[in-house]
Amino acid sequence: MRASVLVEPAVIEIRERPVPTPAPGDVLVRVASVGVCGSDAHYYREGRIGEFVVDQPIVLGHEASGTVVGVGDGVPAARIGQRVSIEPQRPDPDTDESRRGLYNLCPHMQFYATPPIDGALAEYVTIGSAFAHPIPDEMSEDAAALCEPLSVAIATTRKAGVTAGSRVLIAGAGPIGIAMVQTALAFGATEVVVSDLDPRRRDVATKFGATAVLDPREQDVAGLHVDAFVDASGAPSAVLAGIQAVRPAGSVVLVGMGAPEMTLPVQTIQNRELVLTGVFRYANTWPTAIALARSGRVDLDSMVTGRFPLAEAEQALNADRTPGSLKAVVRVQE
Fold this sequence. Notes:
Layout: E1 2-8, E2 11-16, E3 26-35, H1 38-46, E4 48-49, E5 52-53, E6 58-59, E7 63-71, E8 83-86, E9 89-90, H2 96-99, E10 110-111, E11 124-128, E12 132-134, H3 141-145, H4 147-160, E13 167-171, H5 175-186, E14 191-195, H6 199-207, E15 212-214, E16 226-231, H7 236-244, E17 246-254, H8 266-271, E18 275-278, H9 286-295, E19 304-309, H10 313-317, E20 327-331
């Protein structure tokens, strides 16, 4: 099979590799669509994200969909032919975190495209059968791949406690921010305010349902008095401003990957009894993601702004530098 391999930072090669064999409990998936995440671009350009370092050739890509074409022992043959969205995780079921249902925090997690685990920019991949989620006929392969970033948004929305009538502030109108806008509204939020430096991204946020957008350089968010603030930017200045915008006993959720350390307004957090937490991936989100996309309350197809064949994976990894780009996908079989 063909695979797009990151050989060293900024060097991608299409290589021939053996088709993987599904282990017991696994399915073999013929990959259709792979979304490009900011983490993929970081690995491509810098060769690392924090403590995760690329020290050998690796296949990137963890937002994926495809069709089951083979099964391992213990998996019904009836699964062959199913179109699926891949949840790109292999947790150890015996860890305390997995037993508590928090399998995303499993210390022995094997996650697609996180060194040294290969990802989905290849013609075939294997995954545990429970993590290959069947999708409805009407869902596109691109949308099925984007159930992954939508799952990040769902996990974040749950952490933020968004419910009917909530007022939400989101910093950052990239793919996760836009998925957050749609998810917050689907969960019942009546006001979703988005801040971003880029006027094009603010326009995109409005298109996807944001009730208000603002430029944080020109407008102070401190008086918004929102129920929840979500940072999808990773910028320390955005985090500090967002915390000031939260009402007493409100929630702050950090999802953007940015500065490894930052100074926080501890007295504000204490005096307002704010709940501040982070989000690391997701757990138990795929059924909700598929239902939201199927219902039309979240539009994943419209988030795609560029499609590339596998041979042009490098262009896809650089698509975020194109003005107006929101989400690039690689169509592996084209």
